[in-house]
Predict the 3D structure of the following.
Amino acid sequence: MKDGAYLLSLLKKAEGTVSLTASSLNLIHEKIEERLYKDGDLICEEGDTADWMFIVDLGEVAVIKRSDDGTLVEVSRLENGDFGGMMSLFEGMPRSARLEARGETKLVVLHHDTLERLLERNHELGMGIMAFMSRCMRRDSETLAKLRIACLLYTSPSPRDRTRSRMPSSA
């Protein structure tokens, strides 16, 4: 495991973190583990029990969902410094997507029970996580709105056709 200074630099790189107290950093440093994956390795499957979150330290993580017809579709990609596995922290639900390593990948893993103890000691960290999750929800809402608009434009008749359909018949 890397030293505390390296961990602090990774946490600062991770969006949404705030300054941690020395005791919080020590608790994290004692409790985190590193997991290494090769290109294409399955990290977790959608529906798996979710009791840990992670920060990508090396490589990338493909976030994959199964479409209605069963096709696997990459919907997002996590890169160095990105968090993953946070939704289950608050919901207690299983994994919401399949995760696969892209390239040699190293994750810094923190189990939920450790993070809960950290949050009890460091309210600023809790506020930082909520701000991070709020930014994620805002970004996702904006993306969904753009997709919805694009979908409506794609499936709607052309403006010319819409104008014709509103015009009274000359017959």
